[in-house]
Task: structure prediction
Amino acid sequence: MSPFWMPFTANRLFKSNPRLLVSAKGMYYTSHDDRQILDSSAGLWLVNAGHGRQEIVDAVAKQMSQLDYAPNFSMGHPIAFEFAERLAKLAPPGFGHVFYTNSGSESVDTGLKIAQAYHQAKGDGRRVRLIGRERAYHGVNYGGISVGGLGYNRRLFQTLPNVDHISHTHGIEGNFFSKGQPPNGRDLAKEVDRLAILHGPDNIAAVIVEPVAGSTGVLVPPVGYLQELRAACDRVGCLLIFDEVITGYGRLGTPFAPQYFGVMPDIILTAKGINNGTLPMGAVFASDKVWDAFVQGPPNVAEIMHGYTCSGHPAACAAGMATMDIMEREGLYTRAATMAPKWEAAIHSLNGLKNIVDIRNLGLMGAIEFAQRDGVPGVRAFEMFTKCYEKGLLARVTGDVMALSPPLIIEDSHIDQMFQTIKEVVESTD
Result:
């Protein structure tokens, strides 16, 4: 085990008592000691159609036998165009252009580069400043950690210049234990105006935000917050980027967040659920307004000098096409809306248990926040994570928060099992 330097892991601690998953089907993993482990986090927010879908396996195998790889730099292959057409139809109206990546982190950096290049194409090259948000997670590439707002992810590295942050919306009085969107905090979006005064509105290229901040602990936007953020970007004249690496592809009960909140950004960043996590892939959706700015130059010159060797990889596209077939046939893009009332009632049934200081939910996302033990962040939550695993439940923790995002195929019985296990673990943990 020693050679594998595991990501986001205390390697020495893990390898002293490893937790290994060796197979998966439906809602369950099988552990190395042959136990069934209920997946409450869809792997890492991405296995939306459930594990082990043979239809996806078959599509990948067929594509690999026909065309294992083809470049997309001044060349192409049919399935990349076919998949882009289907994605554009799934996206909100006006998002007719898809740029492929291989991960959420790459989608973020691609979106930031498109935003800056957009202003260059419009003849407004002064607009280079990017605005993120405290407590945000936008992946691990340099652009992402720069606009991101998680201190532990940033402190070892040099971040990019010309980046600023607005406040997060966590911990506002009157918002604790809210069901759905909390009532207070809309005006925090107006901090974009403050930064525009500080730096000059002519220097701001884009604001990037997760519609629902996932990896930091499921921070649900206050009522009207995203609407106010859109209005602030319009006042400043900058683009609004939605990082939907987690919320995209049905997590909220609609394909994407604009269809849920009724707020239209200019760029949408996706990955994770795009092909059920079977192969690395992401996609950036550019609005028609953004695309139109790039197509004014000579037709023989690349619109943007950016891309990846495996952008639109044939097998990843095949997995995406098969995933879309399943999601559409089984109604999974909207299933979270059907399951949300049961989910909400179940997670809030834990209200009142010891050491729980907040509960949050939206769609099929949820968070249980615990008080710190002896002032040390994360210790109590990590102990609960290990206890859950021992009892047959995979639950993701981030800091003092247990974050939940099950596969969208979840049934009532899975919800009951999940929260009964969590209840037992909370009650048994000091």
